[in-house]
From TrEMBL:
<keyword id="KW-0560">Oxidoreductase</keyword>
<dbReference type="InterPro" id="IPR036291">
    <property type="entry name" value="NAD(P)-bd_dom_sf"/>
</dbReference>
<dbReference type="InterPro" id="IPR002347">
    <property type="entry name" value="SDR_fam"/>
</dbReference>
<comment type="similarity">
    <text>Belongs to the short-chain dehydrogenases/reductases (SDR) family.</text>
</comment>
<dbReference type="Pfam" id="PF00106">
    <property type="entry name" value="adh_short"/>
</dbReference>
<protein>
    <submittedName>
        <fullName>NAD(P)-binding protein</fullName>
    </submittedName>
</protein>
<dbReference type="GO" id="GO:0016491">
    <property type="term" value="F:oxidoreductase activity"/>
</dbReference>
<keyword id="KW-0521">NADP</keyword>
<dbReference type="InterPro" id="IPR020904">
    <property type="entry name" value="Sc_DH/Rdtase_CS"/>
</dbReference>
Length: 309
């Protein structure tokens, strides 16, 4: 598959005046994305993280790497996607302080974790990777829309970090009966694939409805980050590969290119899935099925109804 390179230094335009929120921002791809944004002068970057101490440490690291006398404004935001109450609180805090939102990067994720339920009783990978993010985006839609309305050149974006492992989902793409269970009968990567299929489908659906915002989902590549450490329920060969294969994986600097590209490039087509940088990726049949996308969106809306404000 052909790829293109991406130079964050020259291809990220000035972000002056813009506000950006990145989930899972304290390490891995999220932290790298924030570092690159911070070099282009945005008004504010919000680093959403489960652990505020880790977020503050990551902000210090980024400031140290950037140096200079005027440090970029990076604000920590407490967010645990495992709890829809926490998502609601994070959205409230953001909305009470921020004036606009130009880029929402739904990046946080877990892979192949042991069967479990989120605090609200959803299959944990689905709840974390898809449902928590969907609630965050839905609660922040009004500010995304008001930003788009105020500044038509803003090209307001929602970038969803999915994975080519979406293709590991069960045959049905999303097994709705499994979503409120730990889904022990499914393999760990199947559950991961299901959550990432849902995130691609939901992005496509949102792009159809909210045309004032650009929506894109991406696969970053196979990147050496902390993701593999949590893959405790992956099969032995996958766990071995995640460990010994690390030197062959992409660096986090390069791994962040695709999501950065998707968040700023005028070439992005709304609803698209990109893999690798800037190339429209081929999704599984199920992840291209707009009837299933509508079903995922309806299910998601119904589940999130009680958390909307
Ligand atoms: N690294 C890869 O090869 C690869 C490949 C395909 C897709 N991805 C996707 O890229 C994204 C970023 O992953 P990464 O590789 O940087 O891994 P990482 O483990 O380094 O980072 C994941 C981030 O998500 C956060 N997170 C996990 N659970 C959370 C929760 N309940 N609430 C809030 N935050 C939570 C973690 O704290 C961390 O900051 C993920 O969505 C992952 O699925 C990664």
């Amino acid at each position: 598959m052909c790829s293109r390179s991406f130079s964050p230094a020259t291809e990220i335009p000035s972000l002056q005046g813009k506000v950006i929120l990145v989930t899972g921002g304290n390490n891995g791809l999220g932290k790298q994305a924030i570092l690159e944004y911070a070099r282009h002068g945005p008004a504010e970057i919000w680093m959403a993280s489960r652990n505020l101490d880790k977020a503050n440490q990551a902000i210090q690291d980024i400031h140290a790497q950037i140096g200079g006398s005027v440090l970029p404004v990076i604000k920590p935001l407490q967010l645990d996607l495992n709890s829809l109450d926490s998502v609601q609180q994070a959205a409230r805090k953001f909305l009470s302080e921020a004036q606009r939102l130009d880029i929402l990067m739904l990046n946080a994720g877990i892979m192949a974790s042991p069967p479990a339920l989120t605090k609200d009783g959803y299959e944990v990978q689905f709840g974390t990777n898809h449902l928590g993010h969907a609630l965050l985006a839905k609660l922040l839609l009004p500010i995304l829309k008001s930003t788009a309305a105020r500044d038509t050149s803003a090209s307001v974006r929602v970038v969803v970090v999915s994975s080519d492992a979406h293709a590991r989902a069960p045959k049905a793409g999303v097994v709705f009966d499994s979503l409120k269970t730990p889904a022990e009968g499914m393999g760990a990567m199947e559950r991961y694939g299901q959550s990432k299929t849902a995130s691609i489908l939901w992005t496509r659906h949102m792009a159809e409805i909210h045309r004032d915002i650009k929506w894109a989902s991406i696969h970053p590549g196979i990147v050496s980050t902390g993701l593999g450490a949590g893959a405790k329920d992956a099969s032995l060969p996958v766990r071995v590969l995640l460990k010994v294969g690390r030197p062959l994986m992409m660096t986090v600097e390069k791994g962040a290119w695709n999501q950065l590209w998707a968040s700023v490039s005028p070439e992005v087509k709304t609803g698209g899935y990109y893999e690798p940088v800037g190339v429209a990726g081929k999704t599984s049949e199920k992840a291209s099925d707009m009837m299933l996308a509508d079903k995922v969106a309806q299910w998601t809306d119904a589940e999130l109804q009680r958390f909307m404000f």
